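Q: Can someone sanity-check these two? First one:
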Amino acid sequence: MIERQRIRLLVVAVGLVIAVVAVGVFVVDGETSDPDPVHFDDTVSMGLALEDEYGLEDDVRLPRAQVFYSQYEYVVGYYGVETFVASFREDGHTDRFGHPRTVYVSDYSSVDAELSAAGYPTADREPAWTDAESAWFVVGSDAETPSGETIVPFADRDDATAFADSHGGSIVTWEQLLDRDVETDDATVVRDRVDDQHREADERVEDVSTLRDRPVSTVVGEDADTVQEAIDAAPENTTVLVPDGTYDETLEIDRSITLRGEGDVTIRGDGNGTVITATADRTAVVGLAVAGSGSQRQGSGELPGDDEPDGAWDETFEANYAGGDAGIGMHTANESLIEDVSVDSEITGIVLRRSAGSVVRDVTVDSPDRWEDGHAGILAFHSPSVVERVTVSDGRDGIYSHRSTGLVVRDSTLEGNRLGIHLMHTSEALLADNRVANQSNTGIYVMTGPERNAIVNNEIRGAEYGLYPDGSDSYVADNLLVDNRVGLRIDATGSRYEGNVVAGNEIGAQVRAMLPTNQVLENDFVENDVHADAGTGPLRVWTHDGTGNYWQGASSLTGDRTVDGSYSPTAPVDRQLHRTDGAETLARSPALEAISGLQGTVPGMRTGSVVDLAPTCEPNNQDLLAETPWADRAWSCERIEQGPSP
């Protein structure tokens, strides 16, 4: 009786699906006149990291385009005409958006444009908009955006010629421009350089690790009574050796030396300020414990180090966050090393501020009992560094990064924090091989629109959100996302998600990106209450180059070992296939098969939905799935052919 009721409910759901199909397709305006351009802030935009946008001078006027598509209900804004051209030339662009109906571009004929020292176009006001089809484009000039070389459009050819005469380049039409190859650092470029990032990180570690082997010049207790006196007496490029014991001191290191503990060594502050502050390049702190920092959350006054304020948009933010108390504070201490250290933190464990090229490894940070009382285990400000083999537990943010482009965090353990790894305005980072467990909010959280991050081979369990990457053109692969409320949150655009195992979550993947520009393939969705959930926006097609994903519950095997027909984890029937007996039979009904053949063929169809046009009949990542309790719930191709077990 119960099963009959379930199937009856599913039949009702089928009727709702058919109704949605009938009225949910975006209707193209039949008028012949072109739509007027809109304010760029009203577009769904892409092509510029938020950090870069914040960092622009007030008079910078970057070239932009806005596009009205035939089957996409929002106007898409592109920072950089080249961003649109690259997107337009991608396979599947028309399938996702329909045809560009009208394209407007910035008209530099309408302003008196110059180039800044960085090559950015400047003017006293924003350029007007002009129709791209009648515009002239200067390519190969000295003009740039934060992403690199840019294309400058003009309504008047004479203006384009004058600009090219002054700044180089050649002039092309819109038709010629669309035929040009435009190279951009997309998600596949990020994928292909992961090995290089690991190698470069290895080289960085090897170089900085030599600091621990400097010759000993001063021994505490023999050559000086206190640790600070030994530091003050030590020549540069030597080691201050601290024998076994507890030293009640607050230390300042202002020259390039190594502070190394021998035995069980603890440096204990007096509860005021940072315990160890270093302000010299190539400083090393090795082999000791640190405790007794102050509990001041925000900094006040000038920050340590010789770096002059640069008037950056985040200067106040930096002073507040990086100026708070910490166990160890590295300020303007490039290429420094913190190794084999434990920190009992009152607020922040370790601060790296404007200390590029540094290495933190084999470090343990214990945070305050209440995460509300702390800040970060390891905090990196303007400090692209390598953080590896660290353990941070029970804090607010395990590892926090701000404007540290190129940061590497790998082989680390984040346990019981509020946020495990938290990136702000940080692009081109590598987060790899980390174990992130039982964060009260989010395992890995990438915010504020960064670009080209690689998040690979991480295991994330027991969080509200497992993996939550924002931004664009990132590579998210081979991650294990288990026992979270939401395994994977997709807000990013132009990114590639592949080889991930999403299992045992309440919601496997939650999609909120407004642009259907992601590549989602060869992932495995197993034993989630709901495999995927999609918010407002167009149909998202999760098939790339004919390759889809494995969905527990998808059925009807074909001869080439793929599933016959599409699968939509957001559709009322399909989303029940792995949970409700009888749903599989209903899914093969003629009505639903007709819908399956239609969905995905019309861009913009079924808003708020996900469809996989080529689901696989068995998991794509068997070894990774075997690390979960549910490997036996995923059918092989052979088992599907035989039918489910009774």
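And here is the second, same format, sequence then tokens:
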Amino acid sequence: MILLVGLLFGTVLVVGIGERIRLPYPVLMLLFSAGFAFLPFSPEIRIDPELILPLFLPPLLFAAAQRSSWSVFRLRWRSLVLLAVLLIVATIAVVAGLAWWIVPAVGLPSAIALGAIVAPPDPVAVEAVAGKVNMPRRLVSTLQTEGLFNDAMAIVVFQAAVAAAVSGGDVGWEIVPAFLLGAAGAGLLGLGMAWLVGTLNRFVPNLVARSATTLVAPYAVYLLAEELHCSGVVAVVVTALELGRRARPQDSEERLTRTSFWEVVELLTTGVAFGLVGIEMRYVIEDEGADLLGFVPGIAVICAAVLLVRFSWMMGILKLGGTERRNKVPGSLKEVLVLTWCGMRGLATLALALALPATTASGEPLESRNFVIAAACAVLLVTLVGPGLTLPWLMRRLRLPDDRAELERQEHALARRAQRVALEAMESSGIAQKLPPERRAVLAKRMSSLHALLEGDAEDDPEKMRRLRQTLEVMDQVQREALDAARHEVLEARKSPGTDPEAADVVLRRLDLRTVTLER
């Protein structure tokens, strides 16, 4: 308990340090906690490896998926197939082949398990790093799409490889139907959980309780999916995407409360998770210390292979014209370098490595377990610490074209669209007709400047908000109806292909804030 409290306070401190020196706080948290773990007075606390993924993966995946939408996946399905499935398979194949060839003591099942452990980049690390370096939005969106589902494929292969290593059997093609069936079942569970959460929220009036439901849901659907031998990763992501699709225009306060709630949850969970990764490094080094020097050549080859496979794959996609027809990613060698550098391993890699059983079914030690764990931790450090600390420098040197203008263009277009629908709703409102003409004129003027408020112009000042809160109740009600119509339009736009969810969320948040100011 003391360790947990220390990690929570440490996260807050490290976030502040990271903001000042412009470095990602998850990487700093890992380094600081690893350094602390080696101090003589540091307590020896070990975490059950089987608890790492169930504790940290559901809320972090849910938080990341909330920032996306079904339309993004429909638009970027090629990215999903090429990066979250085929690249994972290619990485597993290359790493397994090299490990089997270079280290004679490693059997094929253990080699495949190693490939599955080091294959999936960590979506949490990537988002935490990419969000601080003004990376082009199209690259961030591609990395988000890759990161949300790549763990699913890797975990299925890992489980099959471990079962074969323990039983002495082989890894066969049954992995493919197992993955497809597990993903399909998880998708159904995610849809069902989203429906259940929506139904519960209609009966629970308390805003905080409704926000708390969204914290329980990812844990519940993840554990249920794993119990039914489905993909917990897919189930959590589908739950978050479906809840976003079911969002209602009138839930302004709930959205604002939930957004703030999840910002805190995500920050603290990320900090604690990477803090534990750093602490576990001490025990890995202590446990494998006698053999580490002998592992160095093989580990170096594995680390180089992980980086080269990702670079080669991105180069191949570039030569073929990018992942998407309308929006080429990567579109240049510079973008290939960035996407390669952002292949950071993290929580899933460490958790899977530590979850390797120590013995086989016959009671004999699992072959080359020490090498697999040491190689996995080395890949984690090489792909996370180095790129995490140098990505800001790399982005400054590459000077990629800034696509924020496109994001601002979408924000402006959505703001104008919301204003048009708000004016139409106000003009057709029966309640508005009960107001004196001069009051209707005031409302019309305010709705006519709605786009400026949504675009964040200086018009949206505290004094204006204060005066708005003092208007008559009937005027407030008319404005609520108009703003409800505007929110409905933005939510519909968010579901359509071609609309960046981030642009829609910016406009929607400003609409929600505008509505909250009407409450007395």
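A (reply): Looked at the second one. The radius of gyration is 25 Å. DSSP finds 21 helices and no strands in the chain.
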